[in-house]
Amino acid sequence: MAETNIIGRSSHIRGRITGTADLEIAGLVEGTVEISGELVVAAEGRIAANLNARRLVVRGAVKGDLSATEAIVLEEGARVVGDVRAPRIAIAPGALLRGYVQTGQQAAAAPRAKAQPAAAAAPRTTNNVRPTAAAAPARPAPAASTAATARPAAAQAAAPSRSTPARTAPAPAPVSSNHTGPARTTSGNAGGGGAKAGPPAPTVPVLKKGARGTLQKRR
Amino acid sequence: MASTIIGAGITIEGEITTDDEVVVQGTVRGKLTAKDAVTIESGAVVEADIVGGPLAVAGSVTGNIHSSDRVDLQPGARVVGNVKATRITIADGAQFKGNVDMDV
Amino acid sequence: MARSTTRPSSDLGQARIGSGARVHGRIAGDGDLTIEGRVEGDIFLRGELTVDASGSVEAETVEADEITVSGTLQGELRVKGAVRALSGARVRGNVQGGSFALEDGAEFSGRVELDFELPAELEEAQPARGRR
Fold it and tell me: N or C: fewer beta carbons within 10 Å in chain B?
């Protein structure tokens, strides 16, 4: 039941994105992304994050390690600096890469597993994986919360999820309450005040250092 | 099996062993052992012992030749080394220095 | 009878280590080379190197203008142009080249170092700490 979520080109997310659905990223994402569906980095996507998915297709720019449980495809135009590990890997002649490449079963790492390290990242992401109620520390910063696109700032509190008007619905996240179900959430959420409760708290990064305003809304 | 062809621009230093035919147009230094025909073309330089089936030489060989069949030195060939074969022909214009052993 | 030294023209310019051949030593030179047999030793070629499905190369260093592999290739690959690993290939070693392509079904393990720049926005950005 995976549906595809999209992070649009003018979005900027900093934090962790997790979920079970498919996700396409055309914006700027910094942090970590762990999806158990298919993750597509569109040609305009710019990612500074380690990516984990069941299947990963890259057409844009990624600085981070790529890992998939099924396959990774780097298409023409992809620019990747980081390691690439999956049982099956295909790299088109026009894809550019600097990093370690490893095909084969032992190469794949379960997406979830990675969570921990990221969690460690600490200040930034508070939540670690689990929906944990948030406590969301954070928030305030508009920052990106993962996935959430847009809104959080606006939302600031209150239930972020939801909707985001726009397209950018990121991630599967429960937040939106959607069907997608439980999974981890990521979504944005505003974390902060309110919201939490119902759907698992989204992971909200606590941005300490000069959090950048993020999430530009998509026009 | 496709035969082995060591092209004119190629140099191999080491040992070559093959079950099939070999044609040398380039340079071989070391040892060449074939079970089938060996052809050393004009311009080839072989500084190696050669073991093979029938051998035709038009290039330069410095080393011993041991053939299970016949050895033909063609015009322009230059061979320095001992030859052991069942038959041998040395054409007019071929240069040869070494012993010939036709006792097989 | 030993063959004459005139070769069929289709063979001219074709350098090949046949499937029944084994080379233990260094191969160097100009021109394209196809390997269908076994090579243990370094290769320094000014030309295109093709390792066929039946071929295997075990080297410390392989240098060529282009490399296309369907068989087994192990070594540090330094290539001016394209390195292509086709389905069924098994390649181990680091690759420095102009371009790199891996077909689905090829096995590969090693570093790939192509020369290019990431978009400026990513240059300073870092993935979350604790990678992997």
Answer: C
